[in-house]
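Hi L.,

You mentioned the student needs an example of a multi-chain input paired with its predicted structure. This one should do, with 573 residues in total across all chains.
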Amino acid sequence: MTSSPALVADPTVEVAAVSKWFGQKVAVSDVTCSFGQGLTGLLGPNGAGKTTLLRMLTGLTLPSQGKVLVKGQQPRANVERYKEIGFVPEESALYNTLTGRDYITYAARLSGVTNPGQAASQALEEVGLTADADRAVGGFSKGMRQRTKVAAALVHDPEILILDEPLNGTDPVQRAHLISLFRALTERGNTIIVSSHVLQEVERMTDRVIAIVDGKLAAAGDIAAIRRAMSDIPYRVVIECDKTRQLGAALLSHTGVDSVTIDDRGLHIETSDLAGLGSIIAGLAIEHDVRLSRFAPEDESLESVFRYLVGRR
Amino acid sequence: MNAFLAITNVTIRQTLRPKRAIGLGLLSVSAALTYLLTALGSSASTASVEYNQQQAFDIFLGITVGTFMNIVVPVVTLIIATSVLGDERRDNTMSFLVLRPISRFTIGGAKVAAAFMESFALTGVGAAALGIVAAIRIDTFDYFVPLLVGTAVATAAYSAIFVPLGYLLKRATLIGLTYVFIWENGIGGVVPAVAGLSPWRIGVSAMAGMAPDRFLVELPQFAIGSLTAGAGGAIVKATVLIIVAAAAVAAILQRRDLAT
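Structure written out for the whole complex:
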């Protein structure tokens, strides 16, 4: 068992006390975490160091300090490791004069795939680009370019996928398609690391996140656990009922309830003791003859957790 | 081998854009066109046939050494060779290329090979055109093959130098031009040891080793420096430079941050 939520039991990718600085600027500072089978969301505001960290995972950027191991080896020390890594960079990374099919076939050839043409067709099919495969990628829309990069990362069937903002520029249908593709790969046992600023999409893909803020590891684990660990920030709970004023007044007399506000949607409670509130609310409702229709945490969403993490720094 | 050929093929497709090919192609044949124009100017001359032949040979020598080998070949090769890795960096495609299970030496070798093939496709046309005009004017095809071999050797040697330069420096073309005109042609013209390392002079030494003796006899000293005429030695030097360049690119890709 591992003690830190940033570490997993059977890691395929390990990050050990990694720092990276560019001149005076520290991009990543002493980050230790690991990734195993399944999908992990890498979150952080712009400039937090996500892209630098992902580049270090691939070996594209060398750590100034610390070590990155992919299946026990540093990728640059053994290029054969790249058979097991697929990378979607944030930037364009396309050869504009090539057709989509030529680009993916080229990727397959460089990756040592036995039948590059067939593998390219399959990868194009997986990302839904078969119909446009014979057009030059220079004329592709942003969403198509993203999907082309995803196909290039998938074409050699790697075990580990490192995806830097793979959903950027894609429309809702394409997003849904890519998310279901990533989920399917996760079910096949792949290790997938996705950075994204579209939090709702990350939430749809995974529960496990690693949050980077100002180059440092801010939190790791499943979203609810991260929220629970933020004991210094009171929970926000919404209660919908028929007698908001009576219930609000009753709640205010209880320790653990920090504040109560009322609006059209109901009662909004701030409490540092969510479990305690849960245990007393039914009794209070009976005592004051209040009919409860909803009792739900308001800030256990990834977006709320993320906002707290960024706001703390 | 599959990866080597794939990289070479895609690199040529990416960097030999039509406008660039036309522009550099015209530059490459400019030496032959200039030589042809001098023939039109001297056709009305009433001097003896021997005098005209000697004059035609002197112009051929001057254009071959003073224009084609030391300006056209380096400039054409510079523009192409600096772009084969430089464009990968500029277009952010390095990650696509290097995050693959291929040895860095294969990448370096393929890039230098692509630069050579692409450049020689253009400088070779210029050399062939110059050789044909020479055959018409001085009445012999004896310089045709030596000119092609010398051009190939010089192009290969320049490719070896300019491919790593194109990755390492953002202003590689400017630095390359400074190298050609200030270092090779300026300092190299007066310091024999520097001249001995000059790619275009290595090409001229290859040509001089294969051409009729008259070429070497009348060759100005600055055009060969301390080098010995001979195609074999020149080809070996160019080959060594290519291997060193591929190894240098491999070392760069192994040791440097490749994201920027």
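You could point out the following to them. The two ends of chain A are 30 Å apart (CA to CA). Residues 172-187 of chain A form the longest helix (16 residues).

Best wishes,
N.
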